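[Discussion] Sanity-checking designs against the backbone

I'm trying to build intuition for which residues belong where. Below is a structure token string of 312 positions. I'd appreciate it if someone posts a full sequence so I can compare it with mine line by line.
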């Protein structure tokens, strides 16, 4: 099995390179339950299914089901021709168990693999989020004409509650149009998370007008290096991560988000990054347009089915 898996990984790396030059080499999946499927020509593909149970009240529960089955495909060069039978086999495995309502099946796959996209759609998956990237070589976005630009400054510990309220505004909207979940404990989870990041002096910027916070960009730095999580999804180097961009509802569409990201991109670039990345929901009518205008483009798509028993 090890030799066959290595061959599939080598072939998958070659396929990834042909799809998108920013994709890193395919990496071995984590430990889990192995499933395999046969192709019409006699070749075999494989995948590893990892089940994760999140604790109720955990921060991750704000963007994930509590019971998650994640498939890590090993398709070699087969693309969609391999994805389809592997998903059929996964359906047979899933259908043998008892599935609760707060559950999901998840697959993360290169966005540009259109053949695999077709297979995922046919089996009931929805593209709930993408990892999008922007390199430092991307030209700055011109400011919109007219209007009064807000002032932008770094947030400190004294700004924690303003940052929390802005993150909650983003969560409320994302829960309508994407994979986020506005759970009852969201406020306290956000307060604890924001306090940790501000205490670490992670870069968080506030946009203000007349002394009132109307927008926020929450970022941090991460290293994509061998053995790190980032190396599975990104080329090697230092990257800026845009964790959350939020603008109050009445201020949206007026250039506040663009002003925040102009500052964030400049300062993240000054910190020696090769680029920045983020997650956004393709079904979000605001972010799907906004991030493209800022120079981001999808690299990976995370496909989900909720509940997991809806896999077909």
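Best answer:
Here's mine. Compare freely.
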């Amino acid at each position: 099995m090890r030799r066959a898996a290595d061959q599939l990984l080598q072939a998958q790396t070659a396929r990834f390179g042909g799809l998108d030059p920013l994709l890193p080499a395919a990496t071995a999946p984590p430990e889990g339950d192995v499933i395999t499927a046969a192709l019409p020509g006699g070749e075999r593909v494989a995948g590893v299914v990892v089940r994760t149970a999140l604790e109720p009240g955990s921060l991750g529960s704000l963007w994930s089901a509590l019971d998650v089955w994640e498939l890590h495909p090993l398709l070699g060069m087969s693309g969609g021709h391999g994805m389809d039978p592997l998903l059929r086999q996964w359906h047979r495995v899933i259908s043998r168990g008892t599935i609760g309502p707060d559950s999901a099946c998840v697959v993360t796959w290169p966005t540009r693999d259109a053949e695999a996209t077709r297979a995922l759609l046919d089996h009931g998956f929805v593209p709930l989020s993408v990892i999008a990237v922007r390199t430092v070589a991307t030209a700055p976005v011109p400011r919109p004409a007219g209007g009064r630009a807000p002032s932008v400054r770094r947030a400190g510990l004294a700004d924690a509650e303003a940052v929390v309220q802005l993150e909650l505004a983003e969560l409320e909207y994302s829960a309508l149009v994407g994979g986020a979940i506005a759970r009852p404990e969201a406020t306290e989870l956000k307060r604890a998370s924001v306090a940790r990041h501000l205490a670490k002096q992670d870069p968080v910027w506030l946009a203000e007008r007349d002394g009132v916070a109307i927008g926020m960009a929450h970022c941090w730095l991460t290293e994509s290096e061998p053995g790190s999580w980032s190396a599975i999804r990104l080329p090697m180097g230092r990257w800026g991560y845009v964790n959350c961009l939020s603008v109050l509802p009445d201020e949206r569409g007026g250039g506040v988000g663009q002003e925040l990201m102009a500052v964030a991109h400049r300062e993240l670039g000054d910190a020696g990054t090769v680029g920045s990345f983020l997650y956004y929901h393709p079904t979000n009518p605001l972010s799907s347009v906004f991030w493209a205008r800022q120079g981001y483009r999808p690299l990976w798509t995370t496909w989900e089915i909720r509940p997991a028993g809806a896999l077909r």
